[in-house]
Every structure is written in structure tokens, then in C-alpha cells.
Design goal:
about 290 residues; Arc Repressor Mutant, subunit A; 3 domains; two-stranded antiparallel ribbon; 6 strands
Amino acid sequence: MAALQSHPGVLDIRTPGLVDAIGPLPHLLLWEALRRLGRPTTVQELASVVGQPSASVTRALAALEGLHLVSQVRAARKRPHPAWQVTADEITVSFRPYDGRDEALRASLVGRFGASRAEEIRRMTKTPQERSPTDSQCDSFNAVYFDPADVREFWGIVQRLERFYARCAKKSTARKAVGPDAATDRTPQHCNYHVSLTLVPLRPGVLPLPALQIIGSQVANDVADAASKSATNILTTREFAVAAQLARGQTKAEVARALHISRHTVAEFARRIYRKLGVTRSAQVAARLAELE
């Protein structure tokens, strides 16, 4: 059995008490509310925010503290009661694929958390009658061939998505600063969209399937609007090739050699590219192309 490499902030699925600590949905709801509040919070405040009895909150915090996911802050002059805070911005658990013990623990964790989360989402999803024309909705189904490099790239994309979700969460809960003793604070910790992404291996012999995306009209409008602003639509194929070279920091002479065109032609392309992208020098091209991806 391969040893599991240790990473800071990553929990080993074999850690005693892990499944019982983060498996119950109320525990994770409490941890997430505490993370979003972003300040030391008392048990009584947390109980009010998450709608759980104080005794249940206390037991959950003790279990989470055992995994070093939360820590207690001592009482102070302005805060007569002990408070709690999270110790990280996310919970990450690692396991050993194909190891029987780890797979069983993973199945238990996913089964308990996944089933509870799915039920919560089903219960709170808007019905067709409640949806408005401005609500976005889409589904995507894909079966693809991934080599190891593709999997690593996919994982990088997922990590960027996670950072995007975190940024949106911080934006949605932005609020004015409050004092540590503001027991009446009721900052909403709500969400308005559910996003699900799953990567699972297939058995050999699966034929390629067409990618299927089912998107609501609002999403379709947003996609069309974004496509009209993409670099490949703004620039011609040749201009885009020159812009891509400039974005890598190449000089006009280096671009000319790479694309087998004259330096004068590169300069003419650059002028068009700057005008279309709204920039004034090659150093700005990379950032502009990134915005238009």
C-alpha cells in the first residue's frame, strides 16, 4: 500500500473521529457559518445563526476541534464568553485510492454528507413555478479521454473554481464591521445557486459520447454575450496568433521569426491588436487576453 503524502491543512481520512466529525450535515453547516462570519463567535450566536440548540453546537465544535478545524478564543473584557473561530478556509480530506479500508471510509463519508446535502438541495430548490426569467440554470454531461496530464490540468481548473466559489462567498457575506460583543448580528449566510461537479473513471470500452449542455435562456444570453466579447471573435486568426506570442513576452522580432512573417507585418498586426483590445503596449496584451478567455 502506498503511503499517503502529508500536506499542510489536508486531513487523512483515517484520522480517528473524522467521519463522525464532518459526516453529519449540521456539523458542516455550523463550520461554514463560522467561516463566513469571519470573527470569533460564541456558542449562543452560532446557535442562533444555524438554528441548532446550543448543546448540539457545543458537541459539534468539540468534534471539529479534535480535527483542528476550529479553535477556541478565550474570553476578553469586551467578550465575557469564550468564542470560536475556524482555523482554515476549507476542509480537504485525502484518501488512498484502491485501498479497501480507505475506500470504505470514503464511501461512508460521501454517503452521509452527499445524501444529506442532496436532500437539503432538493428541499430548497426553486420549483418551476417559483423560477423567474432571470434565474440561471444549466446541466452539462461529458464523457472524455483524459491522460495523466489532462487530469492534472482538470484538477487545476477545479482548484480555480474553488477559489472562485470562495470569492463569491466572501462577496455575498460582505458587511460592515461589528464589535466582538455584537450578539444581535444576524449576517445572512445563505446561498442562491447549487453547483455540482463529478469526475469518475469509466470501465474500458466506452465509446465517445457527445457533450451535452442544457442551458436556460438566461444562461444562453450570457454565453452569447461572453462569446461576442471573446478574443477569438474580436481578433482575426492571424491577429490572435500574433497576440498570443506578444502575451508570452516575445519581442516583435521574435514574433516575426516564430510566425515566418516580416517585422513590419508584425508591427502592423500589433497596431490592430492594440486598437481592438483597447491597450497601448504589448505588456498589457496578456492581461487583456486573460480577461477575454
